[in-house]
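pasting for ref. prot 1 ->
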Amino acid sequence: MRPVRCHCCHVRPSGADPWGSLSCLIRPRKPLFNRNFATIAGGFVAATVVPPARTRGVAPLAYRLNPPPGWPPLPDGFVPPPGWQPDPAWPPVPPGWQLWVQDDMEASSTSPGAPPLTPGGYYTADTPAPGTNGFAIASFVLGLLGGVLLSVIFGIVALKKLRDRPQRGKGLAIAGLCLSGVWLVATAAVLVAVFVTAAQRSATTGQISKSGHLDVFSLHAGDCFQNPSGSQPDPGLAQVTAVPCASSHNAQVIARLPVPGSAYPGRAAFHAQALQGCRASIATVVDRSKLTETMKLLWIYPLPQAWADGQRTISCLIVDSSQDLTSSLLK
């Protein structure tokens, strides 16, 4: 039987045939060489070429393609043409994987050697991917804005992905984690400062036992504090320095009046309720022998925003503008 020669045309992978279409024109020719076929692992068939007798010197070894895991099945007898490269959609070549391996027999000088692969379109463990890792960018931006939890999560994910697939962005991921750490430290410092400087109450009596800052709507009846504006409370006052009544102070809460209703009453309604209720409190709870001409009866009521936040009380105050008090005014 006369051997035949197959002239094949190789094209770029596309469509249903990922390795390219093969179309052959078979016609009788003189014997050029013999083909031996051997089955290899994975069910692929590789062809080796026996060098003709006229070949002189040392003939180069033939190479065959060794597809890594995840690539499409290799067609029988597939020989990549020079310049062939894998489809970019295929998985990257695992680290240390030999994409081209030598056949176990010498080939003629006309056998194809390992075709050079043009860089680009696929990545190996040593080839960085283009662009900057998106998780690293997100970690850095959230770290700047104080999104600590997401910044830490995205930073860890970015470092893991960059370890598996080199790409720009490692510095951004590390910076995002560092910024998140700064936010955590700053938040912890603020919380510690607030705790240290906050007023504390006795667990048994409920009275102020340690001086410190206290929200005006957290003042209880009988609490003593330093009124920062002297004889007239600041309308926008939010915090005061609460102190034990035995310490020097210039104001004391004598009563707290609940305000009924859900709609904001307005200044006139607050004034009418406070004038009547606070005056009645002086007669019932205040030691009148401790009152002086320098003392005034004042009150604090919630502004619209505080009302929307749920504050529904009027605080009645006695403020002394001329001297510091060192005892409670209550009976």
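and prot 2 ->
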Amino acid sequence: MSRPKVDVDTKIRQTIEVTILGQRMLLKADEDPRHIERLASYVNRKVDEISAGGAVASTKLALLASLNIANDYFRTLDELREFKRQVEVKSRSLLSELDASIQEVPKEKIIG
């Protein structure tokens, strides 16, 4: 007979209150409440940036904020990919230099 799976994750879901677009929401999350509040603050900043240009319906405001956040996310992904590529190129270059310098050392010096 198989035993039921036991979730070994000890995180406790908490109810966190945030306000976005003037709407009070209670969210259940196993994240640190400060992290959730930070996310809500980020969304509110994006909404404020868009609404600074004039009155916009809340639905349209939410959609535009979502697009701006998605743009930030994908731009950051692209930057991360480029950074990883640069690290890989530099690492290979440094390894090649190390290999070359080891080849140049006389064997007597390596052995001791």
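Residues 46 and 65 are 6 Å apart (CA to CA).
The first strand starts at residue 14 and ends at 20.
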